[in-house]
């Protein structure tokens, strides 16, 4: 699944460094840098500005980490089923399991509110590079990151005086080579209109994830509301439930979360040697704990499902990346590209040697990485506590001095995500906390001061149980009182989770300051030089690494050759019944079974294209030459996992569910006549 | 813990390739290659032949994967607690938990039989290199491995006509440069005399495993029996419960399981890129499943404990190896050593280019590795079935044509391990089978023919449940009937686990034949050349890679410097109480708490030496210059984990429990006056 699970941390994530000349069909292009000439050369046609404008105005970003698009004038949004799974889950209980059974709103006022969800449409992009670079001046280390973040906070606040309906975000492109201010029209009331059964979307489950041929109805419809009424969206994409044709040009428009295509050797080495091994080992253990816990009861099976699919999706991504970085043929290409760049700018005294700066920053980061990682316990309840503590502390400061997630421009979404009502399952929180605390002890060591800070004399099991059982933060009213009460209320609270978050906050700030000084600051300075190097070597028709901001990729409907065998470009709905074994996760969804004779078996189900996408693109519309929607991207094939580091057009594929299959489902399997009518309306 | 969990698979493990000049204190020396001159130079003294002979005749190998030594004339054996944990576990039930509570036999006939355990003492080593090399001749691939294995079966059978009391084993040293026939006096009735509480041995649990300073009473006593009576062992080591002195020379004598110090680049690359990642990821998930399952009930907590400690120990080893192979400074040394060897023999036409042969074999192995690994489901019950099936099939063939574990010389131990009575916990078997089958599907892929062979149309969960619930193999009488009934009984059995093992056997044989042809055969041929190269370059005073056969290492009592801080060479028993938090695994063992005031707090508890050991050395006596036992090795420090690939004398340490601490426990904590008297007897 191409969800961007890092979306919430995007602001603090490592910035991409700069870009290189793109291969044909490679590229997650910004709308102001669309390579029309390149497309025209290859396909004999390219979109004009009007085409691009309509598409851009119809494209939606979902703050949960997904992409989407408006497909009717009444705020109807197409996205993936897995992008609304949390919404279905949060609206379910033991009596009504919408995730399992799907959901069709038979009238608009039955549509389900999605906690924490917000839909955003880009309305303006302005270049603020001179402002930010000017504010940074010749500063370095922590001073650099502080000056940068202060200027960004100022620009964001000034750009969006109306924080009710707009959101401003300064985005770092080319690792600091460019800064752009994105202005969004935001809709913070997002509701669910239609979703199929979970099994229809997840047929094949984890075994088939990142696999193709595939038989998945990974689609759903949301609707944006404002003041309790559907939003009018005159700019939207036309729904076109036809089969894709082999070789036709396709565009995927969405918000790829992050890529690391321009990392230097030492960044890739850190990934391969440190981050990926610890991530795969610890997450695999969590997966095992959760799988077993879900076998304990029906309630656990239901309540743990959303978390498990997130873990398994992430693990597949990380294991795929591990394989890519352990493939000598793949890494040789990355090294070659980097060597070429170094040669192109060798002796340029303006550029100097940013590579050594990066090497030093990565060395410093190696020493900080475990403390940074493991002083962040897992669990929704701890996250609430941490956000409440930091928000209370940060709001007392001037806007320009606050941490990135707590500036005036960022606070509204932070507040919404803390205060929205959603169910908490204490056993799940306890499981996650116990796991993360025991891994902290394992990786930091028993005698490490951070382990002692985390555990005191308690065991991970005891501490997790005491905090989860003792806290009242599952109650949104309690969270609201603490949010509204500010620092005084937070410091006076005797909630053990709040006290724990307060205790950890000092060390977390200290570690962030160290990372800013030794890692983020030097990396930002080197990023500017590396971007200069790239522009000097290859000109400025480059695409930046992904940053969970709007991009467009072009490609075509096309299979690939897997170990000598041609993989067809599409599947049909009838194939589901052939692949089914009767056993989970290869059991046919009940409504598919019931309607087996009615379903048009020849309907194109899923298809693959050469578009260059990554996690965060989930739910992106697949658009044809006419600008109409013929599918929704929901996955990549297994080769796409190395796409984080580099695009290989012979193997890397986007996997999409066809609009034709969604239409068949709307008409025959999960009937929604009102939506059928709405989608057909001009 | 330095147990050799691969002991049972040693016959089919990759053979080490050849040796290089040893660094001071580096080396797991064979007794016929002891570097007396080197020791004399360094310590001004070296053991003479009589010293070496007594030590060799007192050294015991335990077939469970450990080392030990005779320490009285009545067959009393010193080893680690963790080497007898399975024995304690197998003798326990819900009413008597010897693993938790420890065990002291108040008279000899109360000593507890250890299922599957056998004690072995080397009585003769003869060089059979010419016989085996002659039989191989100029053959290659599968023909080579068949000819080699046939000759080995013949030599082993001829060497040990009395299979009741002797065992013969041909060992491959220097990757095929040498073949030696080891003759053992064997004792297949091994009983437990004394063991402390589990928490006394495992204080600090997994967090402190491979850690130091350490506070662990990881010691126990077994006794060898024959015809129902203790074995007379006039040759034994003198027990010497004194404190070790810093800087004194120490010898560790035992059976290091396997090392990979002489692997070529492509073997190390395979380890780093393929085997370690899949092993850590899958085993971490199993760990998580088991941790959660053990939290479900007291029974599960008890029944899963032995398996969990094995998994956690293995994981720590594999994660430590991953770190070592991801440490550029460490791997640079390995590469340098390899380059030196290649340069030394460059242009030697007799040696040619075995490195390329190894590269090709490793490439072939990459394609075979997942199928080989994942067509072996986990679980005791499946293992019984598989052994019964293979034994029935192999016993029908001439000795020289059988698979290694089923030759006349190997069958007695194989039979003992299948037929000995020991408890089976079906939930544990189901958990392990479900896990391994789901990992097979994940790594091989849903559409792989091997996945289809393993699962048919069933899910991993269904299949594991059906096989475990349906089989009768937990009953030793059923296993005996099938063993005695041979192929006819096995093929006629309607036991679903037997039927499943029969179904898989064909494919397992096919994969083994492919691996022999493309991997083991070429590697064996290259091994001879690489050994020749090493002998040509560095002479013949080399030590071979470890092979779970008797070795001696020398070193000294010595701490080390950890990130600028001196780690002391010993701990005292009183330190336990200072480190204790009251919470598992840092809770003091009950008998320690009760006897806190009586225990002499200044007694040396654990200590470290520079001896070069590895898994399989667990339980090895630590011997002083006088030839007396002053401790039992039970672990290495965290830096010892890279010792699989290379020894670093500045950091790598053996961890031992002192004889003084064991004596204190025998006198004060778990009183065993008869043993105290027996150990003091001359």
UniProtKB/TrEMBL annotation, chains A, B:
Transmembrane segments: none annotated. It is an enzyme of class 3 (hydrolase). Its EC number is 3.4.14.-. Residues 1-24 form the signal peptide. InterPro entries: Pep_S46, Peptidase_S1_PA, Peptidase_S1_PA_chymotrypsin. The keyword Signal applies. Pfam families: Peptidase_S46 (PF10459). Keywords: Aminopeptidase, Hydrolase, Protease, Serine protease, Signal. It comes from the Bacteria. Catalyzes the removal of dipeptides from the N-terminus of oligopeptides. Belongs to the peptidase S46 family. This is Dipeptidyl-peptidase.
